[in-house]
Prior knowledge:
This protein is mostly beta strands. It has helices at residues 75-78, 92-98, 193-198; strands at residues 5-6, 56-65, 71-74, 81-84, 106-111, 125-129, 143-147, 153-161, 165-171, 179-190. Strand 8 and strand 9 form a beta hairpin.
Amino acid sequence: MFGFTRAEGRPAMSVSGRPHPSPKTRPPVDVSKGGTAFVHATRYNIGERMKIAEGSVVTLAYDINDASGEIIESSEISGLVTFLQGRSGLIPGLDRRLVGMEQGQEATFSLPPEEAFGRLQDAPRQTLPITEVPSSSPKVGDEYEAALPGGQAVRLRVLEVSRANVTVAVMHPLAGQTIEMHVKIVALREATAAERQAGTVISRPPPVRRAL
């Protein structure tokens, strides 16, 4: 069910679920002074002073730092993200903080666990056969890195141990952490009718079929 490794230090996977390159640490980017963490992109000619609202299509550059200042995810590595505001599926605290921002604007947000990757006490539980855990004698408090069937990295914390089973909390690798997120609005436009109907961004909307 899970692919396990014993947890040692930082998550083996980035927030996006991709393998993370070699760690690098630097102080949080001061975006007010034109930090270099963001990818530059061609500007869209979209009219003046459009602001993000529900249903806007947003293209975002970002850095995510943990409390120590280590970069744990960056659009320099993972690429820009484009999403439909209000239906993004991104971390919960981000959507509401983006409302009212404009193209080209930059900001820094501090997100507590409940608005980022969840609190430890809220993590769902799962009971596994003890034979699936890599340790021959698991103990309460042990943690393991694992991957879900789709490849998403998770952290498992042992909560209960019986003769036959182990109950674990299934958490995002960054659950329980306050993170700092630096963002830049690279592009902003209104959603097309097809995107509003689909509830997602369509890179190339299908052509309108004309009646013969």
